[in-house]
Design a protein that fits this description.
Helix content: 40-55%
Largest sheet: 7 strands, parallel
Oligomer: single chain
Shape: globular
Mean pLDDT: 94
Bound molecules: (3R)-3-hydroxy-L-norvaline
């Protein structure tokens, strides 16, 4: 049985239904800190509570954990102590039960492991990891903990350095790349958007279906094929805030995006602009599907349904590379 921690977050909200489609509803246990009365197959779990985690692993005969619970970059800068405690103690607890019960683990690292001294373009798999955020420090530490668990105790833990992720099912919370999703909400509500990074800020990004595909593909790969035991570089595209606003405006004429950088500009400036994920392509066949144009059309179509924005209801489901129910 699979346990997903942080199941109500931006990634978890898409990963849980995808895993249930793949393996069956009864094979996936969602979990999070808050009680979700409407959700079946859900348990309350604070990942810093090791006894509770161990009890769930035993009660449900868990064999795989997708450990998503954590605090993101922007929120982490406002609450560095909590960010360290949740991100590190939570991961240590997961790695401990993985070692004790021979579990397989997925854990998301981030491009936040890179810092101002890292090559900004075509950032290699092996390079300087000197992040300037506490969140990034927890991700570098986490990668080393994962590698140690794999090499010292034989734990099968796999990880991806996720870029910014765009999705419509759940709002992101406390991230530096949240402007991407917020822009779509503003456009569909016919409101101008004030972006908190400069228009020329370029970051590695990915549409959620690609991120979920990459996680499942990595977890299904033969262990012998994997040469990276910290975390794989991963990307699908890179775009600037202005390029995203323009792509949205092509679908939503009149959309206005203004720019008022805040503290998150310095975080974004410390991250790479373009990532080299050749090792992921070589080791387990990674290939992205969505580019900026397809993502924008798909996002607007699905998000407009959620927001009940008639403007996009009438449009046919955009041509997307995979079958998506319209
Ligand atoms: C954040 N969305 O903004 C996360 C992610 C690469 C960015 O780690 O903190």
């Amino acid at each position: 049985m699979i346990l997903v921690t942080g199941a109500s977050g931006q990634v978890g909200s898409d990963l849980v239904p995808r895993l249930r489609t793949q393996y069956g509803d009864a094979q996936v246990l969602a979990s999070g800190r808050r009680w979700q009365p409407s959700q079946s197959g859900y348990e309350v779990l604070d990942v810093i509570d090791h006894p509770r985690l161990q009890a769930l692993v035993e009660q449900y005969s868990i064999d795989t954990i997708y450990h998503l619970a954590g605090i993101l970059s922007a929120k982490g800068e406002h609450h560095p102590e909590s960010c360290w405690h949740v991100n590190i103690e939570g991961l240590r607890n997961v790695l401990k039960v993985a070692k004790d019960y021979q579990l397989k683990v997925f854990w998301p690292s981030s491009i936040a492991v890179f810092g101002p001294k890292t090559p900004k373009f075509n950032t290699p798999q092996d390079t300087v990891l000197a992040p300037s955020t506490l969140y990034g420090i927890t991700k570098v530490t986490g990668e080393l903990l994962c590698q140690y668990a794999a090499q010292r105790f034989g734990v099968d833990v796999r990880s991806l350095r996720l870029p910014g992720i765009v999705s419509y099912r759940a709002l992101p919370g406390g991230g530096t790349t949240d402007f991407t999703v917020e822009m779509f909400y503003a456009a569909l509500q016919n409101k101008p958007y004030t972006c908190f990074v400069r228009p020329e800020t370029r970051l590695p990004m990915m549409y959620m279906p690609d991120a979920i595909q990459a996680m499942l593909q990595l977890m299904q790969a033969e262990a012998s094929a994997l040469t990276v035991h910290t975390s794989y570089n991963l990307t699908a595209m890179s775009f600037t805030a202005a390029e995203l606003a323009t792509a949205i405006r092509q679908q939503v004429p009149g959309f206005v995006c203004r720019y008022r950088p805040d503290f998150r500009q310095a975080i974004a400036d410390s991250w790479p602009a373009v990532i080299d994920d050749a090792q992921a392509q070589k080791d387990w066949g990674w290939r992205p599907t969505y580019d900026l144009s397809i993502m924008v059309k798909d996002m607007l179509h699905h998000l407009s349904k959620r927001l009940k924005s008639p403007a996009f209801y009438a449009r046919p489901c955009p041509e997307t590379p995979e079958v998506i129910s319209c």
